[in-house]
Structures are given as C-alpha cells and as structure tokens.
Specification:
Layout lengths: L19 E8 L2 E7 L8 H34 L2
Antiparallel strand pairs: 1-2
Amino acid sequence: MQISSCLQIGEYHTDHCEDYVYRGQIRDGLTVCAVMDGCTMGEDSYLISTITGKLLRKIVMEKSYLQTKTEALIKPANNR
C-alpha cells in the first residue's frame, strides 16, 4: 500500500507549521500513522504536538526493535 502525506503551514500560522505528522512501521503489515494538530490560538501548541510525535516515534522504534529481537530468538528454537 502506498501512503502519501503533505504537511504545510496553515493560513493563520504566522511563523511555522504547528502540526506534526508521523508514520512508522513496527513490522511488515503493521504501520502506525498519526497527526498531531497544534492549535492556532494556543500558546506554544506546536511544542506539545512535536513532543507527542517524537514520543510516538520512540515507542514505535522500541516496539520494532523488540519485535525483531523476539523473532530472531524464536526462529532458531523452531528450527531444531
């Protein structure tokens, strides 16, 4: 499946885009997609959306590593 994304600064966002888009893959067939929406009227709302996105990225990366490590440990045991 092809996933396309587009992120651009909003009309009322004067300095920078306040949103954060994340797409990560834990394993084949399991993809995590998320959009963190910053609030135009909120003060420093881009900070929260960015932190949330980066935490999600860290969690997905850890799950991916654990999945890979678990599969590597299980496969040799099944081949005996």
